[in-house]
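pipeline: protein-struct stage 2 | run 1193 | Acetyl-coenzyme A thioesterase
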Amino acid sequence: MESTVAPGEVLMSQAIQPAHADSRGELSAGQLLKWMDTTACLAAEKHAGISCVTASMDDIRFEDTARIGQIITIRAKVTRAFSTSMEIGIKVIVQDKFTGDQKLLCVAFSTFVAKPVGKEKVHLKPVLLQTEQEQAEHDLASERREVRLQHESAFSNIMKESSRFSDPVYNEEEGTATTMGTSVQSIELVLPPHANHHGNTFGGQIMAWMETVATISASRLCHGHPFLKSVDMFKFRGPSTVGDRLVFNAIVNNTFQNSVEVGVRVEAFDCQEWAEGKGRHINSAFLIYHAVDDQEELITFPRIQPISKDDFRRYQGAIARRRIRLGRKYVTSHKKEVPLSAQWDISKKESLSNTNVEALKNLASKCGWEITTTLEKIKIYTLEEQDAISVKVEKQVGSPAHMAYHLLSDLTNRPLWDPHYISCEVIDQVSEDDQIYYITCAVVNGDKPKDFVVLMSRRKPLKDDNTYTVALMSVMLPSVPPSPQYIRSQVICAGFLIQAVDSSSCTVAYLNQMSDSILPYFAGNIGGWSKSIEEAAASCIKFIENATHDGLKSVL
């Protein structure tokens, strides 16, 4: 395993022993969190030169598992220093000592705060950047910090939005379950071995205890083997010390197909507070689990049926956090895009066209679409699959389906209603129902503008169907090479499915399986800190309805 330590980096290596493992022989997530917190703290103190304390650990993603006998290496390094706080990037690699094979086990980001000595004010020195990767992480750290600061307001806005409608997902659905039996309470007495080198309860130990009660809670719902997949954030609200009693309360909040969210709250009591029953809220977290049965098959969780007002609050809160989590993915895992566009070949135009259309229909028919936003004429859904995120925007339009089809299949109309599009021109009229377009899009996040070369394939309804289809996917065309003025980007699978409601109205569904280049345009909306999708959808409805009312159908 590569053991070179970069300047400013702290490296911890551990051989996984039985004492570190769970009942299945896999490394306990709680044990790993303790090691990660220790490594991150030492990286923070190496940069600051003074004592540091954990403020939070967030965007924790478990990519794989590690077993007894394997070796893990934890790398932690300050990505950016602000005035008194630092972001530390953490990466965990697991190695099989017999084969030498290495895999990514876990990634996370921690925020540490420097503790001033006496009355002396702290002002941290900037991070010395030596590579392009360090510069990229330094820039993204600022974006991640903005997302953290926006979290509470975004969450509040989504909860207010959701309170305006009753969620249609769980009403009268068969096979629903309640969370009553998933409540878990546990207590720990903080002893000297649980304290860090500052005398406070070790943050990693608190996280490990939280993971234990959350795992028990998840297991009561799935009746299988739950394993931790991600954690939104461990947020440390206050310290605790040796002698405190820590009370942990965990309960399932909601389920999403193959995942379940468990909320954990921690309260600390000193001796007097314990007698009076008045504790201090010192930590909260929301942990996301998957689960397998005895045959190692992934378990599909039952739908949750909220009963009490508190159930409904937690149920809706989990939906809001999932939405924010999906939006944060772009900021936390920003990576260079691998070109996947098909090479355009005129001799294979029918095959490419059919592939384009079928991909869109297959995306629409997938299970697992979760509603995130409901407005008067607009519903927004998301679909999370492994590392892929897709969006569906469903619009009720006061226009005949055939009119919407003609307007939306002419992409040169797109800049008239979509603020993301700057220009769109036909560069190859392949056939009556297939055109290749060159598209330029607006600047996002300070990057250069993006451009696309896209095949549009459209289909009218068949005899046994009432769906009009407008499918989009990127193609590579030698006559339109990438330009240094733009970032050449790709559309994996996108388009419109249009169905008639009656002779004067229709439903228009826009779908997009988001590539890394597309995600920046959607991330803020998915995460709740932007309204760009709703605004574009409302503009699309207005454009189609106005075109109909203005009699533009006469020229089609």
